[in-house]
Write a structure and sequence with these properties.
With 290 residues, this protein is mostly helical. It has helices spanning 2-37, 63-72, 85-91, 93-104, 113-133, 168-180, 209-221, 240-243, 245-248, 252-260, 267-272, and strands at 73-75, 81-83, 159-161, 164-166, 227-229, 235-238, 277-280. The protein has three domains: 1-37; 47-220, no CATH class; 227-280, no CATH class. The strands form three sheets. It has a three-stranded mixed sheet. A two-stranded antiparallel ribbon has the order 1-2. Strands 3-4 form a two-stranded antiparallel ribbon.
């Protein structure tokens, strides 16, 4: 009897080993995915896209995107712009496809810098909406994964521009950030999440893009999801300032001075703050509330 029990015990243990190993691998992958989701890519220039034509005669038409924004983006009760994704699918998805196809038919390297800037911002935001429409059952963009180990959709080469395959991460981290080196871009690019700065109700345009970037910064920095001092005296900042610290300041202390200059109602608190900062970000989808 002992031999039989021992045999069964050993056999059971042997059978468990592959399962345990598999579970450990899954746990390791989960940790890796979690860390990837909370670590922003570095700015890495894709030199090809740095070319431009300051005297470009090309006029880029963003009126279709404006029509889509007018019909689908609304201010929510929480003062966050909400996107009616369900309504989008019913009436506007074909217009979105037309707009994305139009942008991909253009040559941004033949545009002026401001034309390029508006082009890339609008393209990023429009493609993000397109991604969300493809995952109607998901409540967070982090779950919108083209493959099992993907962390969101950002590395997928959805776009083809001037014959080159381009991802959302390419636009943000290899084109916009390194070429323009403008921290306000973080307030203009929308990742379909409540913690993210709003999807603007206005299409970005070459002639107004600089003012629009400033408006985006002013709006976000006036909201608690960007900067908040809790009743317990805890300073809460958007994780954007943690992930992209290098785009805003040389150090965390310098970041507080940077924010103090732009948030006068909290300037004294920010300039004198000595305690630990708590960073936060809400990845819930910025869809229209029922």
């Amino acid at each position: 009897m002992y031999c039989i029990q021992a045999y069964l015990s050993c056999t059971s243990a042997a059978r468990r080993r592959p399962l345990v190993s598999a579970l450990r691998l899954i746990a390791l992958l989960a940790v890796m995915v979690w860390h990837s989701a909370h670590a922003a890519p570095s700015s890495d220039l894709w030199a090809y896209w740095a070319a431009h034509d300051r005297d470009a005669a090309l006029q880029v038409d963003h009126s279709l995107w404006q029509t889509l924004l007018d019909g689908s983006v609304q201010r929510g009760g929480d003062h966050i712009n909400r996107v009616d994704y369900k309504g989008f699918v019913k009436t506007n998805e074909h217009l979105l496809d037309t707009y994305l196809a139009y942008l991909q038919s253009l040559e941004p390297t033949s545009m002026s810098p401001n034309q390029q800037l508006a082009f890339w911002i609008n393209l990023y935001n429009a493609q993000t909406v397109k991604v969300v429409l493809g995952y109607p059952d998901k409540d967070s963009i982090l779950k919108m994964r083209p493959s099992l180990l993907s962390v969101g959709p950002w590395d997928e080469k959805y776009l083809q521009i001037e014959g080159k395959d381009v991802s959302l991460n390419d636009i943000e981290h290899r084109i916009l950030r390194p070429i323009w080196a403008d921290h306000r871009l973080h307030f203009a690019l929308n990742c379909a999440s409540l913690g993210c700065p709003d999807l603007s109700t206005e299409a970005y345009r070459a002639e107004t893009v600089q003012g629009q970037l400033q408006q985006a910064e002013d709006l976000f920095l006036s909201q608690p999801r960007a900067i908040e001092l809790t009743q317990d005296g805890v300073l809460m900042l958007s994780s954007l300032f943690d992930w992209y610290l290098e785009d805003f300041a040389d150090s965390e202390q310098a970041l507080l001075q940077f924010l103090a200059e732009r948030a006068p109602n909290l300037a004294t608190t920010l300039r004198t703050h000595q305690s630990k900062i708590r960073y936060h970000y809400d990845w819930a989808l910025n869809g229209a509330t029922p």
